[in-house]
Amino acid sequence: MTDSRQPTLEEVARLAGVGRGTASRVVNGSEHVSPHTRDAVERAVRELGYVPNQAARALRTRRTDTVALVIAEDEERVFAEPFFAGLVRGISRAVDATSRRLVLSMVPDESHLDRLGQFLTPQHVDGVMVVSMHDALSLPESPDLPIVHVGRPRDAGACYVDVDNLGGARQAVDHIIGRGRQRIACITGPQDLASGRDRLEGYREALAAAGLPFEERLVEAGDFSDASGVRGTAALVERCPDLDAIFAANDVMALGAMRELARRGLRVPEDVAVVGFDGSPAAAASTPVLTTVHQPLAELGTTAVEVLAHRIDDPGAEVRSVVLPAELRAGESA
Amino acid sequence: MTDSRQPTLEEVARLAGVGRGTASRVVNGSEHVSPHTRDAVERAVRELGYVPNQAARALRTRRTDTVALVIAEDEERVFAEPFFAGLVRGISRAVDATSRRLVLSMVPDESHLDRLGQFLTPQHVDGVMVVSMHDALSLPESPDLPIVHVGRPRDAGACYVDVDNLGGARQAVDHIIGRGRQRIACITGPQDLASGRDRLEGYREALAAAGLPFEERLVEAGDFSDASGVRGTAALVERCPDLDAIFAANDVMALGAMRELARRGLRVPEDVAVVGFDGSPAAAASTPVLTTVHQPLAELGTTAVEVLAHRIDDPGAEVRSVVLPAELRAGESA
DNA sequence: TTGTAGGCGTTATCAG
DNA sequence: CTGATAACGCCTACAA
Q: Which Pfam families would you find in this protein's record (chains A, B) (predicted)?
């Protein structure tokens, strides 16, 4: 009873009483086919459980209907950083809504770049999305292969989608200033990352715009990790006991900061207001007193997929990057 | 200068001054080719930067050199549960060492099963690894497609790799008994999961072997989440103030238990010993007083890949499942 | 050991 | 609107 072999287009055509070409047209949704014929073919397709042979199609069309998401990070961190969960979810969903498939590649270290380079060719994928936490790692780009970076890359000419890190950070700091805070500290993100740099810059700009001085002693270097949030807070509080607010470049650090403040008997937000730049909505939800700048990760993913699709379907088009606005979400305010 | 198109085997053959067939044999590492010719072809391959066209090869050989890892879980949980990080890492590494590629698919809900079913065919992949947290979800299996389950599935005849949940749990409880504890409580895992059931069974067996009674009131149902660890502990302590140990079916719950115990002024391990079944080595490391049964996730992944490769390369072979031993890691003891 | 040729399942072109 | 008919790039008998 089981034929074991998948049915071919030839068999569909035969069963429908049409030629192979016509069957192909129906399967590919061509306009130029009579309703009657279309119907017959579609019935045959269903009856036989026909599914197009991907290999044959790819061989013929030189398209793979596959896009890659390259995460230039070790699995460990990929799973640890809430940032990736949201992003992958968004991208995954968006690609699902497409006729394309998504393959996920993590690149733990440079030794894997060769293998990856062989894979990232028009022969295997139609396009690539790259999210890298380090500016450093540059992967072997195949010409003729559309690439969209998630997060602004070092290469200024490259196509990317990103959240408005600068504007978001400025909003965050504006907000605390508006609540009457004057001595606002900052725990930065890694400075080899555009997001890290931009969020620090936003902090500066907000201070400047309000006529507040930028003070080195109110700034601590962090790396987006919980530990660095704790460490930075400890250092800041010891150095400037009179600070009345902390802007952390992401929520993970902000939460670390809140724990450390609590440990020292300082109350949030009464004594010290805290605002973070959001990597995950969950963090904000779990601590209503935390005001955060919401980073729309899912939307970022969706956008990345859209932009990539656009570049794939219309190779001649101009390269357009997209920057999404970041949105302030005030918790119990300070 | 750039040819833009990838070179074909034909061109390699021409440059090497041999026939297409011979070039193919060299590329595929056939024995029957003279060292001289082989050398010429290899040089041509390098010079042209030839890389075999996957589609053409797949079309011809009916093999894809691709294996799928299906995680029957929402992205959210996949990234939240430390279990998956270790597993994916192990599998990823193991596949990398192969000539095959890995594609990762998460299945948030049943609505995605159709799409997945279309993908999980010999036409797209050579084999599949499935890790599911629920017994319920059964994916549409394509005949002729080797499947290896990670974690014992409901279907008893299926091929799987797993950790010795029962033995591990028994070891854990044995260990606390050996340290003189008498009233040992258990926070179980979800009972619709083999791992959950087996670990509870191990707990029973250890008690029985030691002549200790199994008491319902010493058992609380958990679901592997931190919250359920906290909740279960609270319930247990209130119900049985005299308990002197807790066995939690995973580390996440064990850590939750420890927090709850601390909150109630109970000391670990002086007042109450805690031992967990380990999803992630990190948990054990972060709390030296926690004794855990180590679940070798990376090795589990490696084994899954090996078993799958075996089944792919030797389709006639008997289906053999593998159960890995679990290893006790004693923290500062009770 | 090596070359030649047929065909894997599709799509695209080109007549009808 | 439809049906033949070439490729797409590769592997693998088969013949030399």
A: LacI (PF00356), Peripla_BP_3 (PF13377)
